[in-house]
Design a protein that fits this description.
This protein has about 625 residues and is of the alpha/beta class. The chain contains 7 helices and 33 strands. It has 3 domains: about 5-210, Jelly Rolls, CATH 2.60.120; about 215-310, Immunoglobulins (Immunoglobulin-like), CATH 2.60.40.10; about 315-610, Glycosidases (TIM Barrel, Alpha-Beta Barrel). The chain is about 15% helix and about 30% strand. α2 (about 345-360) packs across α3 (about 375-380), α4 packs parallel to α5 and α6 (about 535-550) runs parallel beside α7. The structure holds (2S,3S,4S,5R)-3,4,5-trihydroxy-6-oxo-oxane-2-carboxylic acid.
Length: about 625
């Protein structure tokens, strides 16, 4: 055993033995559980030197240290020395990135302490309480009434911590969250990305009020191994996980509309089950049918809305419910450009996905990290297929076992949260990762993990392409294990002008569907001129016209495209003072929400595809 492996084993041991501090298993479907929302105004302290966390010898402060920012500052007499405090004058809205809320945060990367109080009214009956965070970017430490509940890393996935019974008070609970969005080479994403590192408690926060034991997680989907085109001969399959093992207990799964109600016996904590169903209407973009499903355990009923569909690859085609489909997609960042902020609400999701509908897209690539759950729920109900991705982007430290564990954790959190969303058809394990044996081993291990957790979806990643004159060759070794071969295409933007596409050809080494996970060109909304002039809407329009011509010449394995990108988005890499001003301008919609000319070119292409189907 070498040095590195020993160190890694010690790290794993530490993770598992750190008392009460390790992150707990995710509780899913929180919107349909009894909860108190902790959204609203929270106080904050900006703490770039992490003074609230470390003492002047740079050691983590003791839990009871009155100068630790997780403790309530107390002044008993005027001579007491207190050097921090929380005040209404310094408040941030939760959920929300901090960057958009006050100019002081615009470019801030570092620690911010959030604090609020909450009460539990007498009316609330529950046995156990959990704090749930939809996402916090990036590293979070959570403290309640002076005690640490836990720590989580990863900016785009949910997590929860149980509150010990004796810690929770009826009134005046002092909740403090330390958030740090500094970028690090050994985190995911790493230091270099083409998007803005919005910090803060960016998604909903809830206090989940739970019974003594409860269903922690479940999955339910059409069984891909038994899929048939006969609606009276389908099988559902899934798993259930209780929070605590039981000697034997019963969970009833019922789908009232299908007159299905099945009592399932669980011995222990987990159960895998299978349910034959008759008369099932399948979920599709044309008919986004969702069924109410109830899971009944002891005195508790947990309801969800779930759609059932089959997605698979057959040779060079992607089949949805047994029928060949074309993915008319669009890529999206989780941003509302007009307000220069992260998207966070259902209304935001309706705006972004509403624009995608307007484009006649039937699919979205949620780039480059898992978006909030309002997005996938709304996609479910609007009938929009989803590619969901973890931020394994560009130059991650592929040599490190620890970094691989971090990637797997984010992958797991994404899958557990969203595996009951019919809309999600593709898990993506990364984007444009540079070729090396270490990278390919790392990425293959993520593909294997996604497949082992979920066999009812496709797995992909944006792969590397190499160019030999006008020939574009996709032989990235990762393509051997992904279900579809996806690549980002920028001929005519990075390299040459849009007519560079005229004679270009595409070759895929693998006998699999080919998907263009990006293609795009920058244009400043409202800037017009000759099509040869960069940054004009006409240039971008020309780029899309040439792209569509090239797509029409694609070999038969061409299965879809998700151009880059629905709207302009913030990026610190985009510094042209006149045309970019900190924005990546490849949006089909500008930062004021106005559609550029290229939007209509793509819309036309998608409308035609729709008509021919
Ligand atoms: C890419 C990246 C994407 C960038 C885009 C661009 O290939 O995947 O994150 O934003 O190109 O605009 O260059």
């Amino acid at each position: 055993m070498n040095y590195k492996t020993l160190y890694f084993l010690a790290f794993l041991l530490l993770l598992n033995t750190f008392p009460g501090k390790a992150q707990e298993d995710l509780i899913i479907n929180t919107q349909n559980r009894k909860n108190i929302s902790l959204n609203g105004n929270w106080h904050y302290i900006i703490d770039p030197y992490e003074n609230g966390f470390y003492d002047y010898r740079y050691k983590e402060r003791n839990e009871a240290d009155p100068e630790a920012y997780w403790n309530r500052p107390v002044v008993n007499k005027p001579s007491d020395r207190v050097e921090h405090s929380y005040s209404d004058e310094y408040s941030l809205k939760v959920p929300g990135d901090w960057n958009s809320q006050d100019p002081v945060f615009k470019y801030y990367e570092g620690t911010v302490w959030y604090q609020r109080e909450f009460n539990i009214t007498d009316a609330e009956s529950f046995q156990r309480a959990f704090l749930y965070f939809g996402a916090v970017n990036y590293e979070t430490h959570v403290y309640l009434n002076g005690k640490k509940l836990g720590m989580h890393k990863g900016g785009f996935t949910p997590f929860n911590f149980e509150i010990p019974k004796d810690l929770l008070k009826p009134t005046g609970n002092f909740l403090v969250v330390k958030v740090d969005n500094k970028r690090h080479a050994d985190e995911i994403p790493t230091v270099n990305t083409d998007w803005w590192n919005f910090g803060g408690i960016t998604r909903d926060v809830k206090l989940l009020l739970m019974p003594e034991n409860f269903i922690q997680q479940y999955s339910l989907q059409l069984n891909p191994k038994e899929f048939s085109k006969d609606k009276n001969n389908q099988t559902l399959t899934g798993c259930l996980k209780l929070n605590e093992p039981e000697e034997t207990s019963v969970v009833t799964v019922s789908i009232p509309e299908l007159k299905l109600s099945e009592k399932l016996q669980i011995k222990g904590q987990n159960l895998e089950y299978r349910l034959p169903v008759k008369g099932l209407e399948l979920w599709s973009p044309e008919n986004p049918k969702l069924y109410r499903v109830d899971f009944i355990f002891q005195n508790d009923t947990l309801s969800d809305k779930i759609g059932f569909r089959d997605i698979r690859v057959s040779g060079k085609d992607v089949l949805l419910n047994g029928k060949k489909i074309f993915l008319s997609g669009i890529s999206i960042h989780e941003e509302i450009p007009q307000e220069v902020r992260r998207a966070k609400t259902k209304k935001d999701a309706e705006q972004l996905l509403g624009w995608a509908k307007d484009l006649h897209a039937n699919m979205v690539r949620l780039a480059h990290y898992p978006h909030n759950e309002h997005m996938t729920r709304t996609a479910d109900s609007l009938g929009i297929m989803v590619w969901s991705e973890i931020p394994v982007y560009w130059t991650i430290d592929f040599e490190s076992d620890e970094v691989l564990e971090k990637a797997k954790k984010q992958l797991k959190e994404m899958i557990i949260r969203d595996r009951n969303k019919a809309s999600v058809i593709i898990w993506s394990v990364g984007n444009e990762t540079p070729l090396s044996p270490a990278r390919t081993a790392f990425m293959k291990s993520l593909v294997a993990k996604a497949k082992s957790m979920d066999n009812s979806r496709l797995v992909s990643a944006a792969l590397e392409v190499h160019h030999e004159n006008e020939k574009n060759i996709i032989d990235d070794p990762l393509g051997a294990v992904t279900d579809i071969v996806s690549v980002n295409e920028y001929l005519g933007w990075y390299g040459g002008l849009p007519n560079a596409k005229e004679n270009s050809t595409w070759e895929v080494t693998y006998d699999k569907p080919l998907f263009f996970s990006e293609t795009g060109a920058g244009a400043k909304g409202g800037y017009h001129g000759d099509k040869n002039q960069r940054w004009t809407e006409e240039f971008q329009q020309w780029y899309f016209e040439e792209t569509i011509k090239m797509m029409k010449r694609m070999p038969e394995n061409y299965t879809g495209i998700a151009p880059w990108i629905l709207t302009d988005f913030r990026s610190p890499r985009r510094n042209h003072p006149e045309f970019q001003q900190g924005w990546n301008r490849k949006g089909l919609i500008d930062n004021n929400g106005i559609k550029k000319k290229a939007f209509f070119v793509l819309q036309e292409y998608y409308k035609k595809i729709e008509e021919n189907n």
